[in-house]
Automatic annotation (TrEMBL):
Functional description taken from the UniProt entry: Catalyzes the removal of elemental sulfur and selenium atoms from L-cysteine, L-cystine, L-selenocysteine, and L-selenocystine to produce L-alanine.
Protein's UniProt keywords contain Transferase: yes
Family of the protein in this entry: Belongs to the class-V pyridoxal-phosphate-dependent aminotransferase family. Csd subfamily.
EC number(s) on file: 2.8.1.7
Protein name: Cysteine desulfurase
Necessary cofactors: pyridoxal 5'-phosphate
Organism per entry: Mariniflexile gromovii
Length: 404
């Protein structure tokens, strides 16, 4: 049974005060909070079995290696990857995207085309622009509409035999739109293009099945789903990961090194040069366990209730304009108050103990489309409550009164 009051007890940070007021944390799309169960795993690692992995014969190293590889299997099961070696530990979504973009440098040539969407976070734009500079390929963009949805008829027109790669997010961080990735993947495959899905914002809310999606690459960050920062994963189909060259050279990723020639290790180690964030990987596994124990269907249902409740309350405020009004959205609300800069609203909310994000949310093209400098973004997690939304809505009203 989903019980938010019981869940909240797992998160020590939720009982602290900010500026003398109880914290209302609505910046979950930037980073989620960490439950005690995950904090305990981190403390246990450093207290009891901190050691380098895959190299030592000693017991501590073996213990850490076992826990790290068990975490890889947890991630494999969670995303339903066929093989554990299709899961590459990364430092986060950004790292995963750069790894793939770098690998494609040697596979693309002039006249090849790659497709991005208008709804992307900068980390799913810039690495591909850099790839275009290196390879001579051209970047095409799926446009968006006023509701903050991708225009699929335009996507269809962009696809051709020259298309080699398509990369879109599963859910937009700035607007919360859930993109039709099943359609995007199917259409891309029809022209022989590979697809990378940026799952940074979907993983906290839904449980993606990479085999059912038939996606080629899927990336995520642990810190968006109750895990630690600096940790994430790249899923890649075995055939693609075998084809891509290593991203970084160093220890761990080699089979044999001589000054004449180096041969590379098998998957997944080929992409995991150097000492990884061992504790981070293990804690990522613990975060996945934690969220699965709560249940993703229950999480999605409850967060949808929060979204509807907050949308209804906020829509009663005169001069408040929402950005991102798709029917298919997750628990993110982006808005502005007429004539007021989003930063000023965020500053007043902070004084009231309410944490929201303001600005362009690393998605400047979306702000350019709407011709605004940014928005106020409130993003809810399964540990938030309707009472917190009431506090937030009265905070927005107060900000409007003070700044008008
Ligand atoms: C959609 C999306 N993609 C990529 C990222 C980058 O994630 P990270 O900073 O964890 O690498 C974010 C972070 O906010 C995001 O929301």
């Amino acid at each position: 049974m989903f019980n938010v009051e019981t869940i909240r007890k797992d998160f020590p940070i939720l009982s602290r005060k900010v500026n003398g007021k109880p914290l209302v944390y609505f910046d979950n799309a930037a980073t989620s909070q960490t439950p005690q169960q995950v904090i305990d795993v981190i403390v246990d690692y450093y207290s009891n079995y901190n050691a380098n992995i895959h190299r030592g014969v000693h017991s501590l190293s073996q213990e850490a290696t076992d826990k790290y590889e068990q975490a890889r299997q947890k991630i494999q099961n969670h995303f339903n990857a066929k093989h554990a070696h299709e899961i590459i530990f990364t430092s986060g979504t950004t790292h995963g995207i750069n790894l793939v973009a770098n690998g494609f440098s040697s596979l693309l040539k002039k006249d090849d085309e790659i497709i991005v969407s208008a709804l992307e976070h900068h980390s799913n734009i810039v690495p591909w622009q850099m790839l275009c500079e290196r390879s001579g390929a051209t970047l095409k963009v799926i446009p968006m509409n006023q509701e903050g949805e991708l225009v699929m008829t335009e996507y269809d027109k962009l696809l051709s035999k020259n298309t080699k790669l398509v990369f879109v997010n599963h859910i937009s961080n700035a607007l919360g739109t859930i993109n039709p990735i099943e359609y995007i993947i199917e259409k891309a495959h029809q022209v022989g293009a590979a697809v990378l899905i940026d799952g940074a914002q979907s993983c906290p809310h839904i449980k993606p099945d990479v085999q059912a999606l038939d996606v080629d690459f899927y990336v995520a960050s642990a810190h968006k789903m109750c895990g630690p920062t600096g940790e994430g994963m790249l899923y890649g189909k075995e055939s693609w990961l075998k084809k891509l060259p290593p991203y970084q050279g160093g220890g761990e990723m080699i089979a044999e090194v001589t000054f004449e020639k180096t041969t590379y290790a098998d998957l997944p180690h080929k992409f995991e040069a150097g000492t990884p964030n061992i504790c981070g990987g293990i804690a990522f596994g613990a975060a996945i366990d934690y969220m699965n124990a709560i249940d993703f269907d229950a999480i999605a249902k409850y967060e949808h209730e929060l979204l509807e409740y907050a949308t209804k309350q906020l829509s009663q405020i005169d001069g408040l304009k929402f950005y991102g009004t798709s029917k298919h959205k997750t628990s993110v609300i982006s808005f502005n108050l007429e004539g007021i800069h989003p930063y000023d609203v965020g500053t007043i909310l902070d004084k009231l103990g309410i944490a929201v994000r303001t600005g362009h949310h690393c998605a400047q093209p979306i702000m350019d489309y709407y011709k605004i400098p940014g928005t106020v973004r409130a993003s809810f997690a399964f540990y938030n409550t309707k009472e917190e939304i009431d506090i937030f809505v009265s905070g927005v009203k107060k900000a409007k009164m003070m700044l008008s």
